[in-house]
Amino acid sequence: MENKLKEFRKKFHWSQEELANKLEVSRQSIISIEKGKYTPSLLLAFKIASTFDVKIEDVFIPNNEGRI
Amino acid sequence: MENKLKEFRKKFHWSQEELANKLEVSRQSIISIEKGKYTPSLLLAFKIASTFDVKIEDVFIPNNEGRI
DNA sequence: TCTGTATGTAAAGTAGACTTTACGTAAAGC
DNA sequence: GCTTTACGTAAAGTCTACTTTACATACAGA
Q1: Residues with Cβ within 8 Å of residue A57, at least 6 apart in sequence
Q2: Fewer beta carbons within 10 angstroms: which end of chain B, N or C?
């Protein structure tokens, strides 16, 4: 699962910590998602999309290789 | 997190087992999601949406009360 | 040089998504 | 009555999303 979290965050000029606060998650979660260490839950994905005022599909791109 | 999984499944005239096979998950997962026992992972949500040829937002509706 | 801001790694713990197995029930058809 | 199909519950196990804490690095500015 690829994502454009970092691009969107930069676009809004937010630090990882600011974004974490807005999303009510830890900064570690932001780092891990940006670095592709894991894919967020559906709920967090919804929150991320609405924070950037876009659709989930605009931020997250599922891979062929994507496991369930 | 509300969802319209059952509605879409009925619309396509699929049993829970058929849908589970298409999505490559267990029938238990389908039951649990339909019954609202848990919300699927982002990857599974993507698969569900593409199976019904709609967007994630068409199937899943985040609640106000939604925890992360 | 010291301080603050931003980013990153590592490790251990908790909660929940998902699996497998097994069993229960109700309806439909022979 | 028996079998098949569809739906549901329960319980125990695995994996991973997410947390907290602590430490490291690099850069900017006074």
Answers
A1: B55, B56
A2: C
